[in-house]
């Protein structure tokens, strides 16, 4: 009875569901069961490796990493999900913290049993590796993105790329009799982290890496005059050229090494490092970015937006964080716009005065998910003569219309409220824009507050970006002078309450097509965006993305210091719910929207949403108090 | 919490000891070994959670019809390490007891006698700390048999989840009067009650109750086995279990 319950449970859980009943019975007899009260630390970052594979039977856990004083949430794992794989598999210290987010029961599978399964069923191992690789890829993505590596080489994915394709061919080999110092110099000169030690016939004898120099020479106080033979690592881990990259990663984790020799039967073909594998991840976004650059006319750009959608699906499957996904989408969409404008300018000649193409709304905040409506406008430099003024107005009117139409062709529907550059209202010289902004701030009518919420998230994407900068400075100056505007905006922010009823049950759509559903964008995401926008305007922060705004406000805004991290995590969580839901819809062939049915959420997701709503409500109360008490300077 | 800092080595040491004990185990030794180290932390010791089904509660006339047990390493329940045996009772199954545990005379007629099952059961328990819901009842019957067969009582340390829970309720200022059944306590901890009134199923429920209780007790300051014993058996100062009661009290 006890074991048959475990078997029944495992039968519903991937990848166990793919195993035979007899195997599941064997596993069940080895399973132990542990209970973790809410808040229990199950695994600790940099702590001992996991000794088990943990499968959540009931409840849920939060996985996060601590960097400095910040906790970065990587994932939530719920009923049927597992954790502990990475350090169990590598025997290396745990890289993450795992804490019970609720009272949680886990089934534990011991290392020995797990490794047996791993060896007997390759597909079983691959499942875990894939889910792990997703996380691995995600953390390295941030690094690559920040370093601007996104636009470099590569063109396929870890599961389809043979190691031979990415292995470094320009392999540096040395004789075992070379001195340690000579070898170290060679490595420094060539800026490489390893040397392969070979005999006269170029058969590999060993490898010397940075780590060997550190651990076996410097730390051990060995003379640098000695031969390499004394310090080289002779247990060579090799991989065949034809094997896939994820297998290389697997070997690296398993042996805790960063270099693998790539062999073609008996011949040394090259070397592959963990860095090469990391580089591999950014590939599909890079490929798309390059494709965009290479297209010469609008028609050729059309198929690319559907490529962006399928790439997003892939990133989702690999476990990339929602905020990173939207950064990639935003980046690619931006490149698409830039390319469209470039192509148009080439065809129709340069403009009479400098201009700046700006985007706002979710595009301005770099928070796009799948297909979003166009939200754009155009600022041009103030023409010096009335003749030039007329010429510029005509030129930019036609120009904007062409760009808006091209964007429609590329899959960005027109904005129903006509917030587009082709609308003469939003296609104006700088002085008119300044006048508009001043007017919205000083009048503080409901309409102007609404327009402010839309336009103040603007971000320049093409042309003379200084024009956008000047407008941003003007905006901040005016806000300094007109604090009453912020009070009005705060009142709007506070009015828009999260849909959490008094009895803490969800208030959802009462009628219509989306009856009993929750609009994630309007009822959750927008509330956080509004709060953070208000804070940014209070401090004249020029960032437009919600997460970047929180980052920029840190240390200079009391409420952000107190609630910034929670708001950030909440935002990330809702974004993920939304993007997963939308991707599901796209895969089913329907139009993505922002609705979810709360009943389809699991307990942990519901609980988290409730907590998020309580958080929003609390912050709104504090904003309300502050403005009522007039404590905002 | 949990087993992070409990090295694998330590677990395997323990199981080696256990295996050794089991393999060397003879009937006479059964009753003489028992863990004496009361300073061990309560979330890092071995427990064996037991339950028995009886023909009735009269120690003179009734007898054991089934024995069930499941092992725990600290708070971890080892789902594959269970003991589950029916026993041919020395006394007749009464109508009333058949209704409770659903074991019919026909089912047990072909089963091994208590003489055959008891050594296996004691071997399974080893010197782990025995845990039960009001284990005093189970021990009365077990000891009657061990005394009859080997002339000595079971010497394992005994923990009563009923007493632990009562103490907990007292300590946190809840109503601690009344006599909640195992299933009442289980429900109060959100432990699912499944396959009730089957010895191993009840042992599993009891184990899950202990699993929930241990972290709470640790929070309330109960850290060592000695302290756990004291709480489990306040009247006796908590150390060794001796029975001197009438069933009528229950």
TrEMBL record, chain A:
Entry's Pfam families? CBS, cNMP_binding, DUF294, DUF294_C
Segments forming domain Cyclic nucleotide-binding? 15-117
> What's the protein called, per UniProt?
Cyclic nucleotide-binding/CBS domain-containing protein
- CDD domains per UniProt: CAP_ED (cd00038), CBS_pair_CAP-ED_NT_Pol-beta-like_DUF294_assoc (cd04587), NT_GlnE_GlnD_like (cd05401)
Q: Does the keyword Cytoplasm apply?
A: no
Query: Where's the CBS domain?
Result: 167-224, 232-288
Tell me the InterPro entries matching this sequence.
CBS_dom, CBS_dom_sf, CBS_domain-containing, cNMP-bd_dom, cNMP-bd_dom_sf, DUF294_put_nucleoTrafse_sb-bd, GlnD_Uridyltrans_N, RmlC-like_jellyroll
Keywords assigned:
CBS domain, Repeat
Q: What is an example of a GO molecular function annotated in this UniProt entry?
A: [protein-PII] uridylyltransferase activity
SUPFAM superfamilies found in the cross-reference section: cAMP-binding domain-like, CBS-domain pair
The question of whether Repeat is a record keyword is answered with yes
Which residue ranges traverse the bilayer?
none
Q: Which organism is it from?
A: Candidatus Aquicultor primus
From TrEMBL, chain B:
The yes or no answer to whether the keyword Ribonucleoprotein is present is: no
Q: What is the lineage of its organism?
A: Bacteria, Bacillati, Actinomycetota, Candidatus Aquicultoria, Candidatus Aquicultorales
List UniProt keywords, sorted A-Z. Exonuclease, Hydrolase, Nuclease
Signal peptide span = none
Pfam families attached to this UniProt entry: RNase_T (PF00929)
Query: What name is this protein filed under?
Result: Exonuclease domain-containing protein
One GO-annotated biological process of the protein: DNA replication
Residues annotated as domain Exonuclease: 46-219
Instruction: Report the SMART domains cross-referenced here.
Output: EXOIII
> By its UniProt entry, which SUPFAM superfamilies does this protein fall under?
Ribonuclease H-like
């Amino acid at each position: 009875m006890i074991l048959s319950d475990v078997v029944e449970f495992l039968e519903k859980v991937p990848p166990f569901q793919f195993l035979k009943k007899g195997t599941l019975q064997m596993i069940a007899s080895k399973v132990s069961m542990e209970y973790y009260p809410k808040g229990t630390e199950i695994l600790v970052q940099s702590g001992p490796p996991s000794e088990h594979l943990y499968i959540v039977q009931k409840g849920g856990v939060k996985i996060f990493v601590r960097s400095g004083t910040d906790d970065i949430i990587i994932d939530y794992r719920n009923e049927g999900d597992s954790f502990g794989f990475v350090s169990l598999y590598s025997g290396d210290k745990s890289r993450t913290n795992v804490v019970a987010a609720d009272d949680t029961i886990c089934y534990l599978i011991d290392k020995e049993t797990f490794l047996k399964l791993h060896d007997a069923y390759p597909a079983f191992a691959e499942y875990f590796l894939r889910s792990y690789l997703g996380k691995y890829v995600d953390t390295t993505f941030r690094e690559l993105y920040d370093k601007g590596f996104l636009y470099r080489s590569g063109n396929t994915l870890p599961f389809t790329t043979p190691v031979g394709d990415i292995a470094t061919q320009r392999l540096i080999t040395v004789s075992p009799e070379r001195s340690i110092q000579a070898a170290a110099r060679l490595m420094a000169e060539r800026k490489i982290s390893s040397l392969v030690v070979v005999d006269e016939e170029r058969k590999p004898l060993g490898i010397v890496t940075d780590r060997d120099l550190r651990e076996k020479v410097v730390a051990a106080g060995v003379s640098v005059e000695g031969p390499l033979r004394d310090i080289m690592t002779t247990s060579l881990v090799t991989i065949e050229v034809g094997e896939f990259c994820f297998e290389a990663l697997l070997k690296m984790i398993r042996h805790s090494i960063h270099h693998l020799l790539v062999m073609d039967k008996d011949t040394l073909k090259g070397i592959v490092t963990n860095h090469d594998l990391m580089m591999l991840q950014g590939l599909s976004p890079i490929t798309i970015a390059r494709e965009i650059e290479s297209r010469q006319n609008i028609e050729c750009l059309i198929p690319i937006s559907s490529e962006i959608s399928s790439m997003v699906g892939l990133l989702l499957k690999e476990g990339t964080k929602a905020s990173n996904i939207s950064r990639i989408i935003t980046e690619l969409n931006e490149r698409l716009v830039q390319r469209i404008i470039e192509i148009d300018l080439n065809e129709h000649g340069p403009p009479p005065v400098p201009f700046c193409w700006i985007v706002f709304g979710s595009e301005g905040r770099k928070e796009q998910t799948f297909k979003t409506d166009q939200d754009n406008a155009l600022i041009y430099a103030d023409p010096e003569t009335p003749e030039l003024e007329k010429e510029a107005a005509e030129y930019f009117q036609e120009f904007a219309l062409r760009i808006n139409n091209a964007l429609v062709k590329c899959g960005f529907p027109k904005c129903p409220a006509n917030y587009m550059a082709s609308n003469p209202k939003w296609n104006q010289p700088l002085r008119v824009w300044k006048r508009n902004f001043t007017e919205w701030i000083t009048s503080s009518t409901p309409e102007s507050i609404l327009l402010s919420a839309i336009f103040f998230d603007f971000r320049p994407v093409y042309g003379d970006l200084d024009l956008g900068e000047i407008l941003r400075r003007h905006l901040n100056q005016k806000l300094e002078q007109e604090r009453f505007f912020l009070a009005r905006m705060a009142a709007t922010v506070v009015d828009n309450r999260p849909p959490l009823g008094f009895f803490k049950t969800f208030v959802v759509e009462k009628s219509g097509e989306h009856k009993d559903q929750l609009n994630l964008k309007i009822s959750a995401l927008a509330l956080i965006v509004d709060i953070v926008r208000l804070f940014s305007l209070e401090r004249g922060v020029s960032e437009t993305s919600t997460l970047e705004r929180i980052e920029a406000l840190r240390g200079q805004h009391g409420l952000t210091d107190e609630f910034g991290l929670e708001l950030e995590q909440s935002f990330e969580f809702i974004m993920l719910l939304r993007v997963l839901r939308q991707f599901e819809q796209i895969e089913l062939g329907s139009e993505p929207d922002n609705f979810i049915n709360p009943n389809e959420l699991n307990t942990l997701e519901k609980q988290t949403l409730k907590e998020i709503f309580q958080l929003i409500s609390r912050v709104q109360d504090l904003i309300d108090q502050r403005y009522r008490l007039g404590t905002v300077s | 919490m949990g087993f992070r800092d409990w090295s694998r080595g330590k677990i395997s040491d323990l199981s080696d000891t256990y295996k050794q004990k089991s393999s060397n185990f003879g009937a006479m030794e059964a009753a003489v070994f028992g863990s004496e180290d009361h300073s061990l932390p309560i979330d890092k010791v071995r427990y064996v959670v037991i339950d028995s089904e009886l023909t009735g509660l009269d120690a003179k006339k009734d007898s054991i019809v089934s024995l069930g047990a499941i092992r725990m390493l600290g708070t971890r329940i080892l789902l594959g390490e269970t003991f589950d045996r029916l026993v041919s009772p020395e006394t007749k199954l009464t109508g009333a007891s058949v209704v409770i545990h659903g074991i019919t005379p026909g089912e047990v007629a072909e089963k091994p006698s208590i003489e055959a099952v008891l050594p296996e059961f004691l071997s399974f328990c080893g010197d782990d700390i025995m845990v039960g819901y009001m284990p005093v009842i189970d021990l009365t019957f077990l000891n009657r048999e061990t005394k009859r067969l080997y002339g000595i009582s079971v010497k394992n340390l005994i923990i009563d989840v009923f007493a632990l829970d009562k103490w907990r309720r007292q300590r946190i200022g809840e109503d601690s009067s009344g006599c909640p059944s195992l299933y009442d306590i289980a429900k109060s901890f959100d432990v699912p009650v499944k396959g009730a009134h089957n010895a191993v199923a009840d042992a599993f429920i009891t184990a899950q109750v202990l699993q929930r209780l241990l972290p709470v007790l640790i929070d309330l300051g109960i850290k060592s086995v000695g302290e756990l014993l004291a709480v489990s058996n306040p009247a006796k100062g908590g150390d060794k279990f001796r029975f001197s009661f009438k069933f009528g009290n229950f």
